[in-house]
């Protein structure tokens, strides 16, 4: 879609004062999908030269905001940690063509803040941290689960940039379980639940997204029983936190959230009992 209010596109490498009507341009798949009458200038990140994916010396993984879904998918298929299958599962949770895969970015998916954003689900479940850069150049780190505050709402200040997301080595080494539900065979996620089991200390985390306005990550020092998990979800997720749109009513999303959470709990608890490392 043409954005007929945009009068200028600037290279992000050329530092210029942020102005009202400015927006960061990554892949542009959301920006060009619907009218943006409030925008006057796009600041293009495509030439920043950030390495899409880089492994740290401590085994962590840094994903640049400009990394495309196609790049993440290819990397995930060659990745060796226990959590590797989760990358492709979340990439496949996109309601998107291959053309979108080659343009849409991880950072764009997070910054849209939509409940069904599968990169939000992936990075929240793996205890990711966002690196944010202000217009003055200062940096701050925010957990993904705290970065998204509601449907389409983030903690970004005016002109602030999401630079990258880092996934810690400990989380990458976890066993994972993935469940997704949609009202349609190829529809947008109505509920997406990811469980992780840490083989080091036996702790478990269950992350609920898509069904809720923001991701909720529940951590347990040991795998919970069914009742404990249900009570934890009831305490953490309020009635107004279950999302409501054309892709699912809150009552259905709540039901699927509890159901899928129990399924991942059961799958990972079985691994724990079997002593799988």
TrEMBL record:
SUPFAM superfamilies assigned to the protein according to its UniProt record, in alphabetical order: FAD-binding/transporter-associated domain-like
Superkingdom as given in the UniProt entry: Bacteria
Any matching Pfam family: FAD_binding_5
Matching Gene3D superfamilies: 3.30.465.10
Ranges where the FAD-binding PCMH-type domain occurs: 1-172
InterPro entries, A to Z: Diverse_Substr_Oxidored, FAD-bd_PCMH, FAD-bd_PCMH-like_sf, FAD-bd_PCMH_sub2, Mopterin_DH_FAD-bd
Region forming the signal peptide: none
Protein name: FAD-binding molybdopterin dehydrogenase
UniProt organism field: Streptomyces violascens
Lineage summary: Bacteria, Bacillati, Actinomycetota, Actinomycetes, Kitasatosporales
């Amino acid at each position: 879609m043409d954005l007929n209010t945009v009068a200028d596109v600037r290279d992000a490498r050329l530092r210029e004062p942020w102005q009202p009507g400015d927006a960061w341009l990554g892949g542009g798949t959301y920006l060009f999908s619907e009218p943006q009458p409030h925008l006057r200038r796009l600041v293009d990140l495509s030439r920043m030269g950030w390495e899409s994916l880089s492994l740290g010396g401590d085994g962590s993984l840094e994903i640049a905001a400009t990394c495309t879904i196609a790049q993440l998918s290819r990397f995930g298929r060659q990745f060796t940690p226990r959590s590797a299958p989760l990358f492709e599962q979340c990439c496949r949770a996109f309601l998107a063509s291959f053309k979108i895969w080659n343009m849409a970015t991880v950072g764009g998916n997070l910054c849209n803040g939509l409940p069904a954003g599968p990169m939000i689900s992936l990075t929240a479940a793996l205890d990711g941290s966002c690196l944010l850069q202000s217009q003055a150049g200062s940096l701050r780190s925010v957990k993904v689960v705290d970065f998204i505050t509601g449907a389409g709402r983030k903690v970004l200040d005016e002109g602030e940039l999401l630079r990258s997301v880092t996934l810690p080595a400990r989380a990458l080494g976890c066993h994972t379980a993935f469940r997704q539900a949609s009202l349609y065979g190829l529809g947008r996620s109505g509920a997406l639940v990811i469980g992780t089991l840490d083989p080091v200390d036996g702790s478990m985390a269950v992350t609920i997204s898509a069904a809720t306005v923001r991701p909720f990550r529940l951590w347990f020092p040991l795998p919970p029983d069914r009742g404990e998990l249900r009570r934890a979800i009831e305490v953490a997720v309020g009635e107004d936190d279950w999302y409501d749109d054309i892709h699912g009513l809150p009552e259905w999303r709540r039901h699927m959230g509890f159901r899928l959470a129990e399924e991942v709990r059961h799958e990972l608890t079985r691994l724990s009992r079997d002593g799988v490392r």
